[in-house]
Amino acid sequence: MHPADIAAPAPTGADGAKRVLLAAPRGYCAGVDRAVITVEKALELYGPPVYVRKEIVHNKHVVRTLEKRGAIFVDETSEVPEGARVIFSAHGVSPAVHQEARQLSLKTIDATCPLVTKVHREAVRFASDDYDILLVGHEGHEEVEGTAGEAPEHITLVQSPQDVEHVEVRDPEKVVWLSQTTLSVDETMETVRRLREKFPLLQDPPSDDICYATQNRQVAVKQMAAECDLMIVVGSQNSSNSKRLVEVALEYGSRDGHLVDYADEIDKAWLDGVQTVGVTSGASVPEVLVRDVLDWLAERGYADVSAVTAAEESLLFSLPPEIRRDLKAAGQESVKVQHDPGAIPSARKAEGSLR
């Protein structure tokens, strides 16, 4: 998709009037909300501490807030005391991590996003059929490590279109591509285009690997970008999908763009000569942080906020079975995760809110 193909939002009002274009959808996706609620419910059911392998989602505010409530985040399964309870993050883990947890007699709760689990199953399926699997993704990202761990002898990581010339496979008639779920749609498709030029019989995954939320948030930014003098993306530096939103904004016409965790990280100098500010947030960002940014902008004259809606989201995920089972045993109702990723926030939420 190119800039010319993207519908622009409504034109500006009075010349020189300051305004904010607020992307919809934005913020939490269903998989992130499910993972965060999993940790919250685990703390309620079992009491602290509850161990979490890696950051439950890639957001500084979420991690800090859950730490205050009693979650302990560790880098490796071996750091969890034998027999303790551990939650696996939304990004997924490899079979080797599950095996290590069993050896340590850990009580595991798997908060892997179901859309990541889908990619894992695709990798297992194609490896069992002896395909070479070209995994488009970023080296070192937890999701890539988990997916590659399903079939390491069959998977080759392809990080960018420039990597394609170095890719080799055993049989060009048995090759398939899969991807990390949080990538830039445009860059991934360019990588796949080059892979197909080199391997004409390259197979596609059974369905899109880049998740619906990543795609929808990028489309919303594309619709807004040409109208924006500045795009503020709320998200953490280790959030792949948040960083991609800044890149997409700049590619599609925003004059400037920045990634911030909190409103107080915004530099007032960014507003020099700025009439229209775009605001969005990555898929691991609670709405309370967007509200803070809107308040910060309103105090500086950007109180006119209009939503730019690219899609409606209604996907529901059940909580992990271990949590559902123990909620039922405790006489509590299990919930399916549903949220509104598009409404304009109207009120400041309580300190420490994760919504």
Describe this structure in words.
This protein is an alpha/beta fold and 355 residues long. The protein folds into 3 domains: 17-29 and 211-315, 4-hydroxy-3-methylbut-2-enyl diphosphate reductase, catalytic domain (Cobalt-precorrin-4 Transmethylase, domain 1); 31-112, Rossmann fold; 115-198, 3-Layer(aba) Sandwich (Cobalt-precorrin-4 Transmethylase, domain 1), CATH 3.40.1010. The protein has 10 helices and 14 strands. Strand 4 (85-88), helix 3 and strand 5 (107-110) form a beta-alpha-beta unit. The longest helix is centred in the first third of the chain and has 17 residues, at 30-46. It is globular and about 60 Å long.
Largest sheet: 5 strands, parallel
Give the total of beta strands: 14
Write the CATH architecture name of the largest domain.
3-Layer(aba) Sandwich
Between the first and last Cα atoms, what is the distance in angstroms? 32 Å
**CATH topology (fold) name of the largest domain:** Cobalt-precorrin-4 Transmethylase, domain 1
Strand residue percentage: 15-25%
**Main sheet: strand order:** 10-9-11-1-12
Find the CATH superfamily of the largest domain: 4-hydroxy-3-methylbut-2-enyl diphosphate reductase, catalytic domain
Derived structural class: alpha/beta
CATH class of the largest domain: Alpha Beta
Per-chain topology:
Elements: E1 19-24, H1 30-46, E2 50-53, H2 60-69, E3 71-74, E4 85-88, H3 95-103, E5 107-110, H4 114-128, E6 132-136, H5 142-148, E7 155-158, E8 175-179, H6 185-198, H7 212-225, E9 230-234, H8 240-251, E10 257-260, E11 276-281, H9 287-298, E12 305-309, E13 317-318, H10 321-329, E14 336-337
Parallel strand pairs: 1-11, 1-12, 2-3, 2-4, 4-5, 6-7, 6-8, 9-10, 9-11
Antiparallel strand pairs: 13-14
